[in-house]
Amino acid sequence: MSIQVKKEDIEISLDGVKVHGILRLPPKANGIVIFAHGSGSGRFSPRNNFVAEKLAEAGLGSLLADLLTKEEEIDRKNVFDIELLSKRLIWAIKFVKKEPRVKNLSIGFFGASTGAAAALRAAADLKNEIKAVVSRGGRPDLAMEFLPKVEAPTLLIVGGDDDVVISLNQIAFKNLKSEKQIVIVPDAGHLFEEEGKLEEVADLAIKWFKKYLK
């Protein structure tokens, strides 16, 4: 039997700018996962929405918010500005803390590509406010100096055919001091576009978040 998931478009203020987001809430959510998109992607990312739908089926809420405005996206430097993106994620936390329906839920981050670096940097700043982090094909190396300060249990998921990113994740993994795990998904590329591979990512994320978002 499928569950009824509330999905709504919202507008939130991040660091003084207005952006749009998608909030998904299953009945009696066990936690909420904030997505940090990478490489200029936003709330309509098909891969992140797929994962968010799977999280909802497993009883986890999610927030997919644009971290940049349309004007900011024009300047490609902003897409790789980890400091800016992490600040926006921290503001997204402030929104969650004020929203009556989700303010008491445990919070996790799901980061993809450069968004993973932003999520880990924000997690380092927020300490135990963030209960878990999952990185999909991420670039945690872009937040290397902040990794030892991350307290949240962190799962790094990398495609087995994504050679360069595997190496970067292995280096970053050594710098993480929190509870951690790295999973290399066989026969998967950077975007996990191969048949069934994104489902594997979602399953891994669900298990990680359900373990730590209590």
Question: What are the salient characteristics of this protein?
Answer:
single chain, 214 residues, alpha/beta, Rossmann fold, eight-stranded mixed sheet, 8 strands
Q: On the 0-100 scale, what is the average pLDDT?
A: 93
Distance from N terminus to C terminus (CA atoms, Å) equals 24 Å
Radius of gyration computed on alpha carbons: 16 Å
* Proportion in β-strands: 15-25%
Amount of helix = 25-40%
The helix/strand series, from N terminus to C terminus, equals: EEEHEHHHEHEEHEH
Given the structure, what is the number of helices?
7
Question: How would you characterize the overall build of this protein?
Answer:
- With 214 residues, the protein is α/β, with parallel strands linked by helices.
- It has one domain: Rossmann fold (3-Layer(aba) Sandwich), CATH 3.40.50.1820.
- It has helices spanning 46-57, 70-74, 76-79, 82-98, 114-126, 163-175, 197-212, and strands at 6-14, 17-25, 32-36, 61-65, 107-112, 130-136, 154-159, 180-185.
- Strand 3, helix 1 (46-57) and strand 4 (61-65) form a beta-alpha-beta unit.
- Helix 1 crosses helix 7 (197-212) and helix 4 (82-98) crosses helix 5.
